[in-house]
Amino acid sequence: MGSRASRLLREEEIEEIKKETGFSHSQITRLYSRFTSLDKGENGTLSREDFQRIPELAINPLGDRIINAFFPEGEDQVNFRGFMRTLAHFRPIEDNEKNKNPSATEPLNSRTNKLLFAFRLYDLDRDDKISRDELLQVLRMMVGVNISDEQLGSIADRTIQEADTNGDSCISFNEFIKASFVVNIHICTVVLVLVNI
Amino acid sequence: TNTYHLSFHVQAEMLDFLLFGALISAVDPVAVLAVFEEVHVNETLFIIVFGESLVNDAVTVVLYKVYISFVEVGAENVQTADYFKGVASFLIVSIGGTMVGLIFAVILGFITRFTKKVRIIEPLLVFLMVYLAYLTAELFSLSAILSMTFCGIGANKYVEANISQKSRTTVKYTMKTLASIAETIIFIFLGISAVDKSKWAWDTGLVSCTLVFIFIFRAVGVVGQTWVLNRFRLVPLEKIDQVVMSYGGLRGAVAFALVVLLDGEQVKAKDYFVATTIVVVFFTVMFQGLTIKPLVKWLKVPRATNRKPTINEEIHERAFDHILTAVEDIAGLQGYHHWRDKWEQFDKNYLSKLLLRKSVYRKSELWEAYQKINIRDAISVIDQGGNVLTSARLSLPSMASRASFPEVTNVTNYLRENGSGVCLDLQVIDNIPGAKVEEDMETHHVLAGNLYKPRRRYQSHYSRHFMPLGEQERQDREVFQRNMRSRMETFKSTRYKRHKKERSLKKVRRIKLQVTSPPTSSCDSLSLCSDPVVVPVETEDKAEHSDPEKDEDVGITFIARKAETPKQRPKSGCQIPLLPPPPPAPPSPPPASSSPTSEDSHLPWKGSLGSPPPCVSLEATKIIPVDLQQAWNQSISSLESISSPPAPAEPVHPRVSALSRLGGPRPASYTPPGSAAGSTFSIGPQVSQGSFLFPDKKKEEEEEEEDVEGEWLRRCSRSCLP
């Protein structure tokens, strides 16, 4: 990465990102300016603190988890490519894409990948299963202080019970997809809105 | 001249119909906005509808006046030049009105800066200045409504920061009451006119045509303009938005008021117009107003779901909402806009300095606020069947050591006095019924009631009949605290891992200090006490430092002491010492009661570190009130300075953790003395680190520093009060 984060994004890079993520040119440049504005250290990468500086994330129950999702395994910095790759999961699906090369690798914002993103937020230890504890953690984050631990535990138990088909009292990715069937449809219609005011 | 005969009764000319068209098109989407508060719609839609209602009153009135002037002259005398003059006058009137409003906004902001000693006048000043804006605009024949509107918009930020909490409440309540009264009176008048036959004349053709046409043409107008707009928008306005916008075009008070004001001599068809307007208003308000909510709900429901969602679906759907909100925030939904940020810079450097007050902190306000918060939270927890001592981790103010405030009684007595049937005696412990959730229903009920809601970007305070509850604030506070705590712990653990190597087995003396004044723990740096006495409750010797697991038990809470300034401040009796941190620095933890060292004397948010990039302040404006933004920015950038190599900059900072008090101190923050849950205490090292960085800040910044700090305190107390 260049030493000045305020350097302009090169055309070739934009093309590459476009191919990889499917964002349009203007969206990429817009997101790049956002990236540079977040990058206080001006070294072309974002650290966790740069994300934590966004005030709205501090009042989002899953805020810190989502920040972690931007960072690849074990790393503390994310560059613009990585940033865009993660954001690409939420790009709206355009109709004309469905006609494009169907044999190519699944686009990042496909239904499965969106669900996989969410699944990985639950599954911290990356063992491809959501255990009861992991579910409890997420539930605790999402729920107010009025629910006791026992109540929460029973909710978690019921959740697993509902979704678990192979009886290992964990939720695997396939079970997750099936269990959130309706939500499945829901998230495909809820898109990342890049408002052009 | 053409005379149109709808029937044999109505005699009106082109100009008259233009006039009528202008006044009947004024939309009053009160009902629509009320629906939006219940059914969450696309926020762009909300902005559009609300914006229209704000500005269209003015536009209608201006157009009305232009046409009236034409009518007075008489249609035959209108020349081409007059049309251009009409257009020009429209522009002048609108823009002129706006300018007048903005000028008065500046004046109002400036005046409220000095009203500290005369709090009781503040609401009066607000009303008077706005009324003055109205009168001035009227004086120059400019648009008075726009003038008032923009006076309010412009002054909002500064006035809100300057005036007291009670004044704010007063202004808000009074405005809503007045608006309610005015609207009611108009509708009473309308009702009376409807039965008073002398005031109107019926013409079936006119009425029916009007009803049909306003609906059709509104839809046409909306669709057409949306089509044009969508070509420039990255995300188009959808069908449902367009439907809501068209259907939500209710006519209301403005149309009726304008039609009644017509001069019967010059507009011969006035009575017919009055009748039509009455019918239109009735019809739209009753029919469309009542049916819009079901319509919106019906349009929004995803077709596939007829069955009740399973628990999985509920949870995951909510999780996805949070995820999406977060990703939107990360991607910077509002974008980096050059002009908006330029405005922010200008505002920060000039306007805010001019219009915002420099205030002195008031400790008594803060203490009362704290007290009220804690007790109120206790009551609310009890009322919901929670167990005070365990579930909410509620802590009662440490009363024993707070001799100078004898009115703090224990909570049980307080509750008894207030008639609550709850008993908080230790012996009586309510057991939350064990979690034998048998039914799906109950689980759903529990979940639905307690899952956090995703953040709505625009809080709807705009209803005339509705005062918003603080639900969102409560949720924000809880989540904020939780997040900050976990971030802190991460920071600590990473930090300790680093310093583990650096440190030898030297003993580090950690002092656990019990702060006597209530705003402890998460707001250590700003605890206020009338005397700088900090009572050491426990002293722990930490044998070795290499045990990061024991973070919980140790740490220093300290109180930030205000610097001794050359300028004498009457109320700054409170000394707020800063303690240097034990971990990074060589272990030398002086107790807080010692006099402040010179390097401690600067509170972390003092001094300017240069202006942060505009983007940060832009985001910060959403969450953090204006007077805290500087501090927020400073705190963030200060922590970067910490990270001279070893530690990562940790955005937990006294100011930041103090932000959790924006809504009031949390029950979870305060643990009774001696409790083991000292995680709150462990804010100490981090806070001190942050604060330790500014030994070299200039003294001349103190003027401003005080303002920010005082502002912060006032803001806390203000938002603390119920």
TrEMBL record, chain A:
Gene3D superfamilies: EF-hand (1.10.238.10). Keywords: Calcium, Cell membrane, Cytoplasm, Lipoprotein, Membrane, Metal-binding, Myristate, Nucleus, Phosphoprotein, Protein transport, Repeat, Transport. The keyword Chaperone does not apply. GO terms for cellular component: cytoplasm; nucleus; plasma membrane. Residues 26-61, 110-145, 151-186 form the EF-hand domain. SUPFAM superfamilies: EF-hand. Its main location: membrane. It comes from the Eukaryota. GO terms for molecular function: calcium ion binding. It is found in: Cell membrane; Cytoplasm; Nucleus. Signal peptide: none annotated. GO terms for biological process: protein transport. The keyword Ribonucleoprotein does not apply. InterPro entries: Calcineurin_B_homologous, EF-hand-dom_pair, EF_Hand_1_Ca_BS, EF_hand_dom. PANTHER family: EG:114D9.1 PROTEIN-RELATED (PTHR46002). Belongs to the calcineurin regulatory subunit family. CHP subfamily. This is Calcineurin-like EF-hand protein 1. The gene is CHP1.
UniProtKB/TrEMBL annotation, chain B:
Residues 677-691 have a biased composition (Polar residues). It holds the Pfam family Na_H_Exchanger. Residues 701-710 have a biased composition (Acidic residues). GO terms for cellular component: plasma membrane; recycling endosome membrane. Residues 562-617, 637-722 are annotated as: Disordered. One of its GO terms (biological process) is regulation of intracellular pH. Residues 578-593 have a biased composition (Pro residues). It comes from the Eukaryota. GO terms for molecular function: potassium:proton antiporter activity; sodium:proton antiporter activity. It is a multi-pass membrane protein. It is found in: Cell membrane; Recycling endosome membrane. This is Sodium/hydrogen exchanger. It comes from Oreochromis niloticus.
